[in-house]
Design brief:
Blueprint (H helix, E strand, L loop, with lengths): L2 H12 L4 H13 L3 H6 L7 H15 L4 H5 L1 E4 L2 E4 L11 H10 L7 E6 L5 H9 L3 E7 L2 H14 L4 E5 L20 E6 L21 H4 L7 H10 L3 E10 L5 H10 L3 E7 L5 E8 L7 H4 L5
């Protein structure tokens, strides 16, 4: 069987919108080729050993397992990232969050940034790469996920990151004592938190079946993590600092309401490449003060 014949047969077997690309990625992984090199060899015979290996991977993909888990790699922001079932598969739409963060981060001074729920480290690594003068704190509640992020940083040679095991801000030095007086403040807080509603049927379909549920949904209406981070970030942002969330395509109005209720200004929602609401941002302008009074009237 030629390479071209295998690709055609595999794509027909997958029968999905990305079938041809999936087949190509599996074969380039087994053969150790780039896609360009693969296309230059379409008429070459596929040897029996390689075919047996790629056929086994194809069976996994037919069952719905994400390509990134099968190959162990996913590209994000022009970086090859290690991916395991302990982390979400980095997605192109998350690059919108990175783009919007970089637009708000100067290049000519030291910065302190934080990525909450870092997973594979995709957002934190992209920010660390593009802003080498920044110290980027990458926080995750999963030890396995944090290990993946740390390995990705080492492979990429990025040293301006600090990895913290914790739940949102509760892993930051001083937060274990529930202190709001710690001098650690951030120029920008970024998060791609779990935001899928707990009863969303997509959780039981396609690639999502294989990804860690705790990274996909906080259960309930899907907004509890965003509410918690928005509320707590006010005490961790420098005056004029930015808060950025990735969220679902239908959650823009709700996320804007949360940020506006919590006192953020310059709140707006940005769209992804498919013209869907994807990232909401807000700016914290309060210099100092207590939050008890406004917290007493917060909505649940």
């Amino acid at each position: 069987m030629t390479i071209d014949a295998w690709l055609r047969a595999a794509a027909a077997r997958l029968n999905t919108e990305s079938a041809r690309l999936d087949a190509e990625l599996l074969l380039t992984h087994v053969l150790g080729l780039t896609r360009a090199a693969l296309y230059a060899r379409l008429r070459d015979e596929l040897d029996a050993d390689a075919q047996a290996k790629v056929d086994a991977l194809l069976v996994r993909r037919v069952r719905g397992e994400p390509i990134a888990y099968i190959t162990g790699l996913r590209e994000f922001w022009f970086m090859p990232l290690k991916v395991t079932p302990a982390v979400l598969v980095p997605r192109p739409e998350t690059e919108v969050l990175v783009e919007q963060a970089l637009l708000r981060l100067p290049t000519d001074r030291d910065l302190t940034l934080i990525d909450l729920g870092t997973g594979s480290g995709a957002i934190a690594l992209a920010l660390a790469k593009e802003r080498p003068r920044a110290i980027v704190h990458a926080v995750d509640a999963s030890e396995a996920a944090l290990a993946v992020a740390e390995e990705n940083a080492k492979r990429l040679g990025l040293t301006n990151l600090r990895f913290v095991l914790g739940h949102w801000f509760w892993g930051i030095p001083g937060e274990w004592e529930r202190s709001l007086e710690s001098d650690l403040r951030f120029d920008l807080v970024a998060s791609n938190p779990p935001y899928v509603a707990g009863d969303d049927p997509h959780l039981l379909q396609g690639d999502l079946r294989f990804e860690p549920r705790m990274a996909l949904t906080p259960e309930g209406d899907g907004l509890s993590a965003i509410r918690e981070i928005s509320h707590d970030a006010r005490a961790r942002l420098k005056p004029g600092g930015w808060l950025l969330f990735e969220h679902g395509h239908d959650q823009g109005p709700a996320v804007r309401h949360i940020l506006e209720r919590d006192g953020y200004t310059n709140v707006e929602t940005l769209r992804d490449m498919e013209d869907r609401d994807r990232v909401t941002v807000g700016r914290w302008n309060v210099v100092s003060g207590s939050f008890e009074a406004e917290d007493s009237g917060r909505e649940s």
